[in-house]
Amino acid sequence: MRFTSVDDGVNKKALVLVLYFLSMPLAEVYCLATGSAFLNFGSRGFRGLYIYGLAAPAVGYLLLTRHDRARFAAYVFLTIDIYRGVRIWSLGAIVANLFFVLYMQTSSMRTVYPVVKSEDVKARMRRRKEAVMRFIGLEKEVDRAPERGGH
Q1: What phi and psi values does residue 40 have, to the nearest 5 degrees?
Q2: Which of 8-12, 38-42, 46-50, 57-61 bottoms out in mean pLDDT, i.e. has the lowest?
Q3: 78 with 136, same domain?
């Protein structure tokens, strides 16, 4: 897991995306307080508070700190928000989120938030599996397990 401190500098182009995510809780609370609807904000119930009050700031924090999985988290969130916009037919939400999905495809955003390599994911999964095996005490049994294959 790699974190880049904020002092290392947040690209000004990436700051637009970060501010979009970090402003979502304020927009949701404002729409709920005034009874208005804007983009996907202000839906009935507390569902929107979970999405825009908890998930959006978490994605914003990942983007701000340039976490390894920030790009993936942003794609997942924006895609779900596009789906919500289609479901309630909020054209503004669809356009805004689609803009940010396409914005993340630009070369400057790819340098700020690089694509996760499958080799890195596989290595991380292997390390986690080994750590779990050591934690539950199966490390020695795994080392002594017979090899599969030949007779």
Answers
A1: -100, 5
A2: 8-12
A3: no
